């Protein structure tokens, strides 16, 4: 084999290896990607059914119901325009309270109940995830516009 052919073979093998590595990295990234939706978007059926995503907003006042014999909790997440019921089995964060910001990750069932795998609460009074704050702001604008009409 001539030196020129050896160089060409090495370059071709390197480009092929780089291509395979890129495909594997992008595939892993895409499978771990989790999108955020507001309760209004979930109610409008914009959220994927059967795929994991995050929902964020405020825990609706008076909606938290704990089952006596288990760690299952039922509550509602609202963006002041729409409300989505959530079911979570596990230990809630210490900062989880009615009227406070929350982000839950899980899947929406066919009957419209969000089955959460993870619940995150805001860490202080001044913080809310940017997506949740924007969703609440948009829902508030939409609600004001509908009241003005």
The helix count comes to: 3
Helix content: 25-40%
Strand order of the largest sheet: 2-4-5-7-6
How many β-strand runs?
7
Poorly predicted runs of 5 or more residues: none
Give me the oligomer status. single chain
Helix-strand makeup class: alpha+beta
| Rg over C-alpha atoms, rounded to the nearest angstrom | 23 Å
In short:
This protein is an alpha+beta fold. 36% of the residues lie in helices and 28% in strands.
Topology readout:
Layout: H1 3-31, E1 35-37, H2 39-43, E2 53-59, E3 65-66, E4 72-78, E5 83-89, E6 101-108, E7 114-121, H3 130-148
Parallel strand pairs: 1-2, 5-7
Antiparallel strand pairs: 2-4, 2-6, 3-4, 4-5, 6-7
Q: Would you write up a description of this structure?
A:
This protein has 149 residues and is α+β, with helices and mostly antiparallel strands. The protein has three helices and seven strands, in the order αβαββββββα. The protein has a five-stranded mixed beta barrel with strand order 2-4-5-7-6. The mean pLDDT is 84.
